[in-house]
Structures are given as C-alpha cells and as structure tokens.
Amino acid sequence: MTDTTVAPSTPIDRKSSIRAFLGQLNASTWIGVFIVLALVLAAIFAPQLATHSPARQSIMDQLALPGSQFWLGADQFGRDIWTRLLYGARYSLTIGMSAILVALVVGTVIGMIAGYVGGRIDIIFMQVMDVVLAFPSLILGLALVALMGATLTNIIIAIAFTATPAFARIARAGVITQRDREYVQACRAMGFSGPRILFRHIMPAILPEVMVMASLWMATAVRTEASLAFIGLGLAPPTPTWGGMVRDGFDNILSAFHLAIIPSLAILLLVLAFNLIGDGLRDAIDPRLKDAS
C-alpha cells in the first residue's frame, strides 16, 4: 500500500471537485464575489481613479455638494470624498483580510491540535478560547486597541485575537469528526506521524468549513474596524478610513448628511458582499442547510 491510497483524493479528483463545487454556487454568491473584487480593484488602483489627493484641503470647498469637481462632494475640510473613499477601501480591506488570515491560521492550528490530541491539551486550549468568546468582539477589540495603541498592526492583532476562538472551535469539531475515520486509522497503521496525519490528511477535509467561517468573519472584521474608527480608536487622521469618515460626517449631519451616508453605504456594501459569499459557500458545502432554511 502506498501513501496515495489513504489520501482523501488525487490531484485530478480535486480539480474536478473544485469545478463541481463552483457549479453549486448560487447567483447571490457570485454577486458578492463581484462586489468584493470590484472594491479590491478600486483600492489597488486608487491613485489612478482618484481625482484629488486624499489629504488635500481647501477652505473654499468646505461641505461642497456632489458635482463635476467633487463627484461625491467634499467634507468639512474641503477634502474630496470620492478620493478618500477609494483610499479608505485600502485600509478596510487590508485590516479585515489580514486580521482574518491571522485568526484563521492561529485558530485552526489550535483547534486541530486540541481536537486531535484531546485530554488536558484539549481542555486547556478550549477553556482559554471560551474565556475569549465570553467577551463581545467589539468590546474586546476596543480594550486591546486602547491598551496597545491605534496603529495598523495593533488593530489587526486586536481583531484577529477576537476572531481566533471561532476558528479554533470549528476546526476542533471537524477534527473530532474525522479522527476516527477509516482513512485516518489506515494512516496510523502505516506508521504516519500525528502532524502528518493532521495537516496532510485531516486538514483538507475540514478546510471548506473553515473557509466559510472566514468569509463570514470577514464581514465582522470590517464592521469592527469601522466601529473602532468611529469612536476614535482607528488610524489617526488624516489617514482616510470609512469609519472615520462616518464619524466626521456626523458632525455635519444636518447641513451635509451625505458625508456620513456615503461611507456608511460603502461599509454596508462590503459587509453584504462577504455575507453573500459566506452564505453561498455554506449552502454549497451542506445543501441540507439550504433546504432547512
């Protein structure tokens, strides 16, 4: 018996299964993917799409309405909202994706080790995760950023810390389900090491559920970053962030309501896109959830 006989699938099977999986995604999922890709491209090409510098101020253009000079208007400092919206997408996407990537890696590894080893390791790891889960993610993120300082790295770490327990729990549940399967027992009989079984054979089986969790938590990360910026714990001005733009807009909500509405709609659109992707992935992985709903 060779190593390939106990692997979940061959490379050819994986390619065909990926094509079959993509074919199961519904239209709303592709809408979400299109929105995210459009925002990513807008963030990447922000210098080419922007009409002004994001830090440019003009007293003469304070609270200017949308028009030919300022497509979405100008804020209380005369800064172009369209330009700041494009550059703000960079920070929202960078913070959200980086934080969830860190949480995915750390949480998945913790959950996989806890589920596979069991015993005291499982109890200790998961009790620590339960303690973190006991705090609301926004409150915990706020406390961490307040303690460490509102820098880009610290905000990413704070959001990743709040999301890690969710990935640990779902990875642990998946490993517990898989660790007694026949292919795992065959790997043990062949003398494969625990890490090899865990990361080469079990991890591909639980990865789809982890990716669904990642897409759903991406929306939470974007909301958390915007909330931190709104209450003054985001990146320091004049760095453009969507949450900071909403906060600035509230100071002039009666005279220029579009200052708060436009970045709020951008946050809503991005959160909606990630939720559409997550729901579609979940339905494709387990059609029973779609039928039940």
From TrEMBL:
Regions crossing the membrane: 30-50, 93-118, 138-163, 256-278
All copies of domain ABC transmembrane type-1, residue ranges: 89-278
Major localization listed first in the record, in broad terms: membrane
GO cellular component terms, A-Z: plasma membrane
Membrane topology: Multi-pass membrane protein
Origin: domain of life: Bacteria
One GO term (biological process): protein transport
Alphabetical list of InterPro entries matching this protein: BP-dependent_transpt_permease, MetI-like, MetI-like_sf, OppC_N
Pfam families assigned to the protein according to its UniProt record, in alphabetical order: BPD_transp_1, OppC_N
Keywords, alphabetical: Cell membrane, Membrane, Peptide transport, Protein transport, Transmembrane, Transmembrane helix, Transport
Family: Belongs to the binding-protein-dependent transport system permease family.
This protein's name: Peptide/nickel transport system permease protein
